[in-house]
Amino acid sequence: MSSEIILFDLPSKGDHPKCWSLNPWKARLALNYKGVPYKTEWTEYPDIADKFKQYGIPANDRNVNPNAEYSCPAARFPDGSYVMDSRKIAETLDKLAPQPSLHTNKGELIDRVQQTVLGCQGALAPLLMPAVPDLLPPRSAEYFHATRAKRFGMPLAEFAKSDKGGENAWKNAEPHLATLKDILAEKDSGVFVLGGEVSFADFIIAGFWDFLRKTNEEAFARVMKIDKRFGEHHKACAKWLEVDD
């Protein structure tokens, strides 16, 4: 692929936005691993739907994303086509540039990792989500407060103090973190999900590591202490997290 790919990502606040969100990270990690040229078009939360509709991007399958009709990431490929959803972006990359492979054909494994990470993130949400607006530009922060209050049934500040927060959040996360530990322990040939070779499944986990670190450093440190494999995996994926803009 000789032409640049455009990645539509959610900006952090400040003059030099950086990637912070789990879903865009999955696509960005895949691009960084492939080593293909791309540039970022930062798109704030309130602008996503109108922009993507203008580009003719089909809405999310409600079974894939029940929370948003349009969401980041999306990507524009050299042939002019648009793809929304990090997994679909990774699958397209594997077709256009087969090597190095993201092993997107490992569908059942990707599903398992995805559900496990979503379980971890969902259980820990009262510890993580209230910090997100502090990462965002003002318009996006306002949008995040409003939409998440609707999703969680209460303002984020109340969500943090609810009976789902604190140690209850950790208790609810335990089975998901245990499954994640098991997934990383299944292959003894290396630190990745497949053992010695990285795959898109690893980038789902790596994106979660970074999101966790940026929203709650104490929670990140606590998770890293649960199992040595977590720290080894984070360290092994660090080089693909370096390009974040």
TrEMBL record:
The protein here is known as Uncharacterized protein
**Sorted alphabetically, which InterPro entries does this protein's record hold?**
Glutathione-S-Trfase_C_sf, Glutathione_S-Trfase_N, GST_UstS-like_C, Thioredoxin-like_sf
- Look up the domain of life of the source: Eukaryota
Domain named GST N-terminal: residues: 20-95
One Pfam family in the UniProt entry: GST_N_2
All residue ranges annotated as the Glutathione S-transferase UstS-like C-terminal domain in the record: 121-240
